[in-house]
Amino acid sequence: MKYESRKTAPLSRWLFLRRLALHAAVSLLIALLSLLAGMAGYMHFEQLAWRDAFLNAAMLLGGMGSVNAPATDRTSCSPTPAPCMPDWYS
To answer: Where are the transmembrane segments (predicted)?
Structure first.
């Protein structure tokens, strides 16, 4: 997206609000996709119900950390990625 330079006139109120709404929509879409990816990971690797997966993913995105203790052994990340999923997601 191209923005106006210092030498051009500022945008009209309508165009500014339209740009602001577009940026907000893109930000919301990125947050929603991140939340869905985290939910999918928790549901697949930790076998959590969708409500618990939503809670854990939302708490991690908010910077608070997981609510449920991990069901998988987190001492090593091999041979499957399941133990490290919360670490990768955060």
So the answer is: 20-45
